[in-house]
Amino acid sequence: MVSSTAKQSLPGAIRSPEAPFMTGPEAVSRELAGSLLDRALARGGDFADLYFEYRRSAAISMEDGRVRSVGGSVDMGVGIRVVVGQGVGYAYSESLDPEAMFEAAETASQIASGGSPRPPVKIRQRRPGNVYEVANEVVDLEGKERVAILRRADKAARAASPKVVRVDASLVAVHKEILVVSSRGDMVYDFQPMTRISVMAVARTDGRTESGSSSGGGRMGSEYFDQVSPEDHGREAARVALLNLDSREAPAGTMPVVLAPGDAGILLHEAVGHGLEADFNRKKTSNYSDRIGDSVASPLVTVVDDPALAASRGSINVDDEGVMPKSHRLIHAGKLRGYLHDRISADFFQTKPTGSGRRESFRHEPMPRMTNTFMEAGTDDPEAIIRSVKRGIYAKKFSGGQVNISNGDFVFSLTEGYLIEDGKITAPLKGVNLIGNGPEALATVSMVGHDFALSDGMWTCGKDGQSVPVGVGMPTVKLDSLTVGGSSVG
């Protein structure tokens, strides 16, 4: 945090304290923004930017039918960055008093000490498109309305079976506004709402206890629940918990794996997507470094990162460097087409940024990150894909995973998986782990279904200590060979 010590005449800045910090692109004057950038570049530098952020959040959780916690917060500030080559000077202020912000700009400028001042910045406002229309934000609902949503989910889960003995649920909503101003002349505003509901059910019978969960949401308001109701999430969490009561130990060994549409996209995100973020490739720590144009997957595989999927959790109208993002093909017909770039990596590779600069908050520097990453649909019949497997695994729901960026090795755990026997989905399994290597796994893709599905908005991605919301998706996909870690011999 940067505190205020300077005492001088400074340009006016923010709306009056009685008004919200940001209610549109005019919230910060161009005069102030230009003066802050001039101060940041007073010692030189390739470029600088300002990231203003205002965030209101509301959270409520229910444990076993009782409201456990209710909370909310308001956070705002500005992060100021100066870039020299691949070096970054960064400072932030939790105060939007001009004196504090100018001190942050002075601190960030130290990276360019000894350089020459840059010419004054001429700022122009740019207006992005809008891929998420929100009429009624969940963050603005009264507490009793948010409690009612969770009670509906709780009631539906318990009604599924007397074996359901416990239900926990939570609802988190965020109202977020950002204003990004770059020394390259752009001033861009975006409003980024978010809603997420999570339900966990516990089922018990004959001394055995299992759990199941369901989550969803996205850049939507209360209209989300017109599409996927609280009852839907409650019933789904109970369904998985009850299913797991009948699950058997997973086989171990190398065998075909069929990835279900939707949630299985998290495997693609972790095992492949991170390796295509350009900072890893700039530093040559990714197994995809220096491989543009190479075959890195089966010809059936096309991987896309698209920030403009309507209302998806990973969607953005503008990235956190003020760049308007576009759909970007990373792998096309098995060949590597490109990386996800922020401004620093784009300058390094002498290309244009892809609008992939993202950060957790104004306290953090941006870095290349995914938005909505998915595999495009193919032409195969999903049922034919299942029928083609003599003995294997059907992977439906994932709890997440880990990947080694340098070589692509991954481990994923399933929360819902099944045995495939003689072309049919049979017994539910527990303790299923999928172990493999991203490029090697994609090379074994032999069938891709026409049933693409986007996972409901539940995923949060961590990288270098920062978390951002993301979307994932894929159709039904057959991997001919993958290592399954289980408890019994396959």
Describe this structure in words.
Mean pLDDT is about 90; it is low at about 1-20. By secondary structure, this protein is of the alpha+beta class. A hairpin with an 8-residue loop joins strand 14 and strand 15. Among the domains are: about 140-175 and about 195-245, PmbA/TldD superfamily (PmbA/TldD fold, 2-Layer Sandwich); about 250-490, no CATH class. The protein is built from ten helices and 26 strands. The strands form four sheets. Strands 1, 2, 3, 4, 5, 6, 7 and 8 form an eight-stranded mixed beta sheet that branches. Strands 11, 12, 13, 16, 22, 23 and 24 form a seven-stranded mixed beta sheet that branches. The radius of gyration is 24 Å and the shape is globular. It has helices at about 30-40, 100-110, 145-160, 225, 230-245, 265-275, 280, 345-350, 380-385, 440-445; strands spanning about 45-65, 65-85, 85-95, 125, 165-180, 185-190, 195-205, 210-220, 250, 250-260, 305, 330, 335, 355-360, 365-370, 370-375, 390-405, 410-420, 425-430, 435, 445-450, 455, 460-465, 465-475, 475-485, 490. It is about 20% helix and about 40% strand.
